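Thread title: Can someone regenerate the structure for this chain?

I was given the following input by a collaborator and told the matching structure tokens would be attached. They weren't. Posting the sequence so someone can regenerate them.
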Amino acid sequence: MRLVAALALGTAAALRPVAAPVVVGGGATAAALYGKLQRYEAVFDSGLARPSLVASEKEINAVDKVLWNAYCMASVTRGDAVPRDQFVRGRLRELSSPIFFVDATGAGPAPPAPPAFLPFFGGSDPAPTPAASSGEAPAAEILAACRGEHVFVLASAECARACEDALDDAGVERATVVAPSDGVALVCDGSWVSSRPQDLEGELLAPVEVGEEAGTGALDVQDLAEVAVQIALRLPRDASRSVRVRGGGAAASRQNANYFTEIGGKNA
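Best answer:
Regenerated them for you:
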């Protein structure tokens, strides 16, 4: 699936100066963010540099497992991983125009993918699991350390407003809160595997809509992360906003681009 006009995100215009993404968290949503941002580094005109990850060693290992299965044996670049206590003390490596993605969704580590010889040769697909909790607003010390061009906070529907209040209390002037619409549950499909080389059009599990209306059903953490990254790519970062996402709308389909379709064509 591709992100389309239903998101009302606009299109990227001129080449942007490069910004350095920093992902804070070690759950399933943070893993989705890091995986997408890591691949965007190699996309021409993304305007995004190599991402950093602020997490504990245990969380880094959990993110590694998600990347290995979802993004064809990718992994966290250890030199770009920063322990949370060092981040709070301001010991992040020198970055040009950092933008921060803070995971406040409460989605724990993704459920283990089915055993397979390689990540893209799957077995039976486990059902998507709900987030471990409704999440909580980022700690004041985390937000205080997020000094950069913009702060993106990904939240559950239940704690979105608490995140907005926390950003106001911390004096963060340029921030975006991205959360499911009221009534929409956040889930994680541990069997999901990216079927495309990353490009500026993005990749969704299902069509989504953006708006203030309440919704029903569920939204996968991969889709929530994709919306946040697309906002970072396409909208100005000099203003604050709050974005709610729910399933629905329409999305254009593209042929999967993997080894089998490249070799076998449309019938693969």
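The two ends are 17 Å apart (CA to CA).
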